[in-house]
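Annual report, structural modelling task.

Input specification for the zinc ion complex:
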Amino acid sequence: MQCPKCNSSMHEVEVETLQGKVVIDKCERCEGLWFDNGEAEQLKSDWMADFLDSGDPEIGKTYNAVRDIQCPRCGDVMQKINDAKQSHIEYEACAAHGVFMDAGEFTDYKHETLLDYFRGLIASLRRRT
Ligand SMILES: [Zn+2]
Ligand SMILES: [Zn+2]
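The model returned the following structure:
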């Protein structure tokens, strides 16, 4: 599979999780990660996935500016998504196939920051009053 951002080749990385083995694709150059549908959610709570996102977040940020990319599986233009819980995280998604995250984004996605936690808390308090 080719990286939708930098066109380098991606290699498969196997992760053992409590639910079984998950195979994701990682770009050899920009170290972006491709997750088939459901995989990012499955790996989010798994500590074994911590090592996956070993790319340089600074490089990831430069590739974050590349937004008009095509799904590596079907070639359709991918949608730009802001994570529902952490709106500062932007990634690309194909509804039929999966999501692409730049280096550093998956780590961010896995660890909801304290700030996001408090934002959520404040929002839920506001809803109650
Ligand atoms: Zn790449
Ligand atoms: Zn697709």
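The chain is about 25% helix and 25% strand.
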